[in-house]
């Protein structure tokens, strides 16, 4: 049984894009070439590796092959990088996964810096909640990720920010124009909880304030959360890095209770890093120093 690298590239691209046409565009080849590569892979394995549909998804065998396929492509990228070292800087196409607030405040300048310093490296950004980002990095869908409060970060990880939580209020709220707000003083307002990965910190804020944690609504998207606060549905607690995302008629106010989170830029914990990923993190560390 011999599986070729083009087949592996096509398989991973279709699995990631959930579409043959999108995979073809990402690889810069025709959709017919992608289909032929997948068909060749399935002939070699003797079984289907993808379920055709909308979206396209891996079969159970495909799921088992996918982790190994990603590792193969990482190894190939490393070989290609060694061969290109005489040409100058690192090269490659990387995926960076990050939560919305990091995408909003931390990454635009960093991406611009990388683009100027490493013209041979292309970085695609995947935005997701904290658990999704961790899953993408562990599952090899991402080469780099911004993790929130990681229990264990590998050597070479870069601390990007320490981020304190704030109250988000309408501008006409009685507490919007003063100083720091005590979470206990918000107890009479309906509370909206963001489900993007902040529940642990929000529970801790309520505990420190000695007040009941009783969200009336649980909202996944920050945009929806801000719209509901703007409409007068309630108040919320959000990371400070969300400042600028709230839009008109809302303010972010510091809290008396100081609870925060740490955002760390890292490569994968349990598999080799793409050579270009290591170069990007070294650059980020030097920039943060």
Automatic annotation (TrEMBL):
The keyword tRNA-binding does not apply. The keyword Transcription regulation applies. Keywords: DNA-binding, Transcription, Transcription regulation. Signal peptide: none annotated. Residues 3-59 form the HTH lysR-type domain. GO terms for molecular function: DNA binding; DNA-binding transcription factor activity. One of its GO terms (cellular component) is protein-DNA complex. Pfam families: HTH_1 (PF00126), LysR_substrate (PF03466). Belongs to the LysR transcriptional regulatory family. This is LysR family transcriptional regulator. It comes from Saccharothrix syringae (Nocardiopsis syringae).
